[in-house]
Amino acid sequence: MTDHAQTDPGQPIAANRLRPACDPASLGFATTAELEPIEGLIGQDRAMEAIRLAAGMRASDFNLFVQGPPGTGRRASVDAFLGRHAATLPEPDDWAYVNNFDAPHRPRALRLPPGVASKLKDEMEDVVDDLAIDIAALFESDDYQAANRAINEEFGEQQEHAMSEFAEKAKSENVALMRTPMGIMLAAIKDGEVVKTDHFETLPEDEQKQIEEKIGRLQAELSEILRNAPKLDRDRRRRIEALNAEMLGEVVASRLREARDAFAGLDAVQAYLATVEEDLIGNAEMFLVVMQQQQQADGPFPESVHKAHSNPVFQRYMVNVMVTREEDDAHGAPLESEDLPTLDRLTGRIEHAQQMGALFTNFMMIKPGALHRANGGYLVLDARRLLSEPMAWPALKQCLQSESITITSMGERLSLVSTTSLEPDPIPMNLRVVLIGDRMLYALLVTLDPDFGELFKLQADFEESIERSDESQALFARVIGMRATKDGLHPVSAAGVARLMDEAVRLAEDASKLSLHLGALGDLLREADYYAGQNRRDQIEAADVDMAVRQADRRAARIKDRMREMVRRKTILIDTGGARVGQVNGLSVIGLGGYRFGRPSRITARTRMGGGELIDIEREVELGGPLHSKGVLILSGYLSATYALDVPYSLQASLVFEQSYGGVDGDSASAAELFALISSLSGLPIDQGFGVTGSVNQNGEIQAIGGVNEKIEGFFETCLDQGLTGAQGVMIPAANVDHLMLRQDVVDAVRDGTFRVIAIRTIDEGLAVLTGRDPGTRGADGVYPPDSVNGLAEARLRGFADQRLKFAQAGNKPPNGQGG
């Protein structure tokens, strides 16, 4: 537990307050093997209530956004809870696409009871395979061949009879019917011989005319007979088709009757099978064509006739199962996720194949997406990945708004293609979408997307820390034990658990809290398990956790070590002894990925007479961020409201982070900057053995900052490199004392008297420590003591005002164009 006793302002903080470590003896167990496992997370009641509500709500617009930092167990919690809840829900219906025989470009969607879609698919494959055999046998049967032959003979006899009658008639009129390569020709007969052309021309003119008239008349009759031949052939084909329909109808109807019986009571299937029967009877010849092709390729008894459904010709009768629940699947609703939520993977896609240089598609090339698989249950998506995929977010919103899944390609959405494609029936959608992302992403969506708030009405905000108490520490120990068991690690001793809790406090940056970044602590635990194994221990001890912490720091500390080296070699100038006017050691934190470390920076200030301008050099060269600029402006407000209130503010000052070549932001150095300014005004030197951090308001109150542990440790390392003298230390805001969880080596140095950590509440308290002189307060006469820090600073500002007035009275233009 933490000791919240007050710290005397300006006095060093006791060593026991710098690292409020957990006492292993207070935990009440020897190793985590003794602890009962714990289900779920600790300290996330608010988030779990939202997840529970989202799971139970049936309204389509109560989708859930889970927010919080990675490593807090948000994804695992969502998966675990929704997985348990989904198992209690009814199984969703199957969905399949089938051919629309009237409009093939608009496939029909079939809604079927769970497990029926795959059975219908198998049944239609069997139907085609069976009919391929039955129809082939029918076409080869004696009855069919006899009936077919009778029809052909009947129409053949009709044609031959007409030609025979015409031939007899022509013969009776002495006209011969002759077949030539050019067709059927008529020629006159005289004396039993065909009249040739040269002989015909020698005949009398009257006889020639009689022959021409007779042949012309017979030619007309022949033409009529020949013109009637196609009609007879059409009639023959119709009779054949009628024969096929009559004989095939019973075969098809008999087989489909079995299929209907297998799916009795399913109106959608019955209606579909009726359209199949009608199309099969109308296109039964294709079975014969396919069989003949296979016989030519494979011989008289092709094996492939037993798997005719694999032939592309018969795909029109197949069933494209989009979603089905197999018999051996677990009962309940689905819980799906999609790690790559592209448009196609989310809403499904229509594939194309190349055939003879052209692209083609059909309803069997429709592929399901994550929305299809999750329909009736839950779909969990990573929000950042979803938003990074083109058109995926608009498509998801459209599906949620319409409560249906419509498959469209990227090309169609962007109007990049104009080729005819499929337009499958939309599938009704009933599912809960869960997005997982960070708080910034949630804020952006709420602000920039008006549809987001209407579709995602629930948020589960995961906490980053939990209050530190005996109860929470006991729960935390059980979580560590559960993690060790789950990952197959050694049990953790009480000392090891206490050491892990110390790291949890440090991650929380608050001695009164435990971090819930269980991912980072789990990584530390697994590494400590490795070192325990290396040391042949049966349990993870505090020393193993210490080793894991040190090694993790060593792996990430290359940049920090190079900076320390530059300070040691005076490449970067940092003084840790002596005193300088207008110069102070500010402290900052550098973050590289998940690794942070503190480093000191020299801050200098220069002052002179001017027109009330405080120049922030970092801002002038565009290296200072807005928060840093705000802090500098607060300094100007403090100076103008604290000193020389009865004369014009006649200061020109400049501030800079020396040897800073990158961006500077945040206001945690504003107190250090103010100390440097007041030192420059008063002429009193600042003890360079101190590092300073803290922000300041216009009333001179020191305010809390972040990264206090890293800042203290960064300055300690600098002092360590240059030699600890016992006079060095760090000044921090008093509000940050409860955030301290320093490394053990820093605590040991404080306990040995070679380093100090001092808490301050006001600028005056800090001035007293840094200058070794009373800061001074205004007396009853409204004047600071003349030898005090504030008195000297105010006297300097009054001097600036007097000089400025004299300068103006002499007829000179005031500095910066200001009026006198």
Could you characterize what this model shows?
The protein folds into four domains: 23-39 and 466-556, Orthogonal Bundle (Helicase, Ruva Protein, domain 3), CATH 1.10.8; 74-78 and 84-92 and 325-461, P-loop containing nucleotide triphosphate hydrolases (Rossmann fold), CATH 3.40.50.300; 118-316, no CATH class; 562-773 and 785-811, Ribosomal Protein S5, domain 2. It is an alpha/beta fold and 820 residues long. Helix 4 runs antiparallel to helix 6 and helix 23 packs across helix 26 (763-771). The longest helix has 58 residues, at 205-262. Strands 23-24-22-21-26-29-30 form a seven-stranded mixed beta sheet, sandwiched between helices. Strands 8-13-16-1-17 form a five-stranded parallel beta sheet. A hairpin with a 2-residue loop joins strand 10 and strand 11 (358-360).
